[in-house]
C-alpha cells in the first residue's frame, strides 16, 4: 500500500453511493393497447416512460388496468382466465425498487406471485410490499373474476446519481474502511489521490 499522509482529522460529511428513488405518479400517465371489461386497458405509460403491460397466459394483451377514483386499479377480467401477467419496463437509467398492492375489499380472493413468492391479499386490505429483484420485472395476479386490487405505489431508482449523505466520525486506531471521493468503498489504495480512511480525509502521494 502506498504511503498515506494525513491532511486533517475532523468529523466530516461525505457522499455515499446511494441512489435517488422516485415514486411514480399514477395520475400522470396514459392508457393504450387493448380494451377490456369495465373500460380497462392493457397498457399504461408514465410521463417518465415507465410502462406496464398486461397479458394473458398466451402473451396476448388483455385490458385489465385503469385509473379510477384516484386509484390505479388492476382488474381480473371476466373474459380472461387468471393469471394475468403484468410486465413493467423502465427506461435506461432506471431500475425497479418496490411496489405496494392492496385488496379493494377483504372478501376478494386474490393473490400475487412474484419471483417464486406468493403474496395473499385475501381477508385483508393492508398493503403488501414487494421488493423487486434485478432482472425480474413481471408479476402475476390470480383471483376471482370480476375482482379488483389496487397498485398503490411503484418506486424506481435513478441509477448513477449519488444523493445520500452520511456523517462519518474520524477515529484513532486501525483503519476500518477506505472510500474514494465518489463514496465508493474500496479494498485498497491503488493510486495517488484523496481518500476517506476510517472517517478521515487523507492525501496519498
Q: Could you explain how this protein is built, in words?
A:
The chain has 205 residues and is mainly β. It folds into two domains: 4-18 and 162-204, no CATH class; 20-158, Jelly Rolls, CATH 2.60.120. The chain has no helices and 20 strands. The protein has strands at 4-6, 12-15, 20-23, 29-35, 41-46, 51-55, 65-68, 71-75, 84-89, 94-103, 110-114, 117-120, 128-131, 138-143, 148-158, 165-168, 178-179, 185-186, 193-197, 200-204. The chain has a seven-stranded antiparallel β-sheet, with no helix packed on it. Strands 3, 7, 8, 10, 13 and 15 form a six-stranded antiparallel β-sheet that branches. It has a five-stranded antiparallel β-sheet with strand order 1-20-19-17-18, with no helix packed on it. The protein starts with a strand and ends with a strand. Mean pLDDT is 82; it is low at 3-18 and 161-171.
N/C terminus separation:
11 Å
User: How confident overall, as mean pLDDT?
Assistant: 82
Number of strands: 20
Coarse morphology: elongated
In short:
0% of the residues lie in helices and 50% in strands.
Draw up the topology in text.
Layout: E1 4-6, E2 12-15, E3 20-23, E4 29-35, E5 41-46, E6 51-55, E7 65-68, E8 71-75, E9 84-89, E10 94-103, E11 110-114, E12 117-120, E13 128-131, E14 138-143, E15 148-158, E16 165-168, E17 178-179, E18 185-186, E19 193-197, E20 200-204
Amino acid at each position: 500500500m502506498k504511503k498515506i499522509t494525513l491532511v486533517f482529522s475532523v468529523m466530516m460529511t461525505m457522499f455515499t453511493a446511494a441512489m435517488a428513488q422516485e415514486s411514480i405518479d399514477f395520475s400522470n400517465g396514459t392508457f393504450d393497447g387493448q380494451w377490456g371489461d369495465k373500460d380497462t386497458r392493457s397498457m399504461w405509460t408514465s410521463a417518465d416512460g415507465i410502462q406496464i403491460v398486461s397479458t394473458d397466459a398466451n402473451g396476448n394483451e388483455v385490458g385489465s388496468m385503469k385509473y379510477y377514483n384516484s386509484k390505479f386499479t388492476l382488474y381480473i377480467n371476466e373474459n380472461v382466465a387468471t393469471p394475468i401477467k403484468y410486465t413493467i419496463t423502465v427506461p435506461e437509467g432506471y431500475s425497479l425498487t418496490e411496489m405496494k398492492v392492496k385488496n379493494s375489499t377483504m372478501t376478494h380472493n386474490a393473490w400475487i406471485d412474484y419471483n417464486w413468492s406468493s403474496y395473499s391479499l385475501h381477508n385483508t386490505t393492508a398493503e403488501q410490499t414487494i421488493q423487486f429483484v434485478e432482472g425480474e420485472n413481471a408479476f402475476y395476479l390470480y383471483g376471482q373474476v370480476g375482482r379488483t386490487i389496487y397498485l398503490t405505489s411503484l418506486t424506481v431508482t435513478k441509477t448513477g446519481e449519488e444523493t445520500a449523505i452520511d456523517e462519518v466520525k474520524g477515529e484513532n486506531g486501525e483503519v476500518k474502511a477506505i472510500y474514494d471521493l465518489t463514496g465508493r468503498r474500496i479494498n485498497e489504495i491503488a493510486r495517488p489521490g484523496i481518500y476517506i480512511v476510517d472517517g478521515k480525509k487523507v492525501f496519498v502521494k
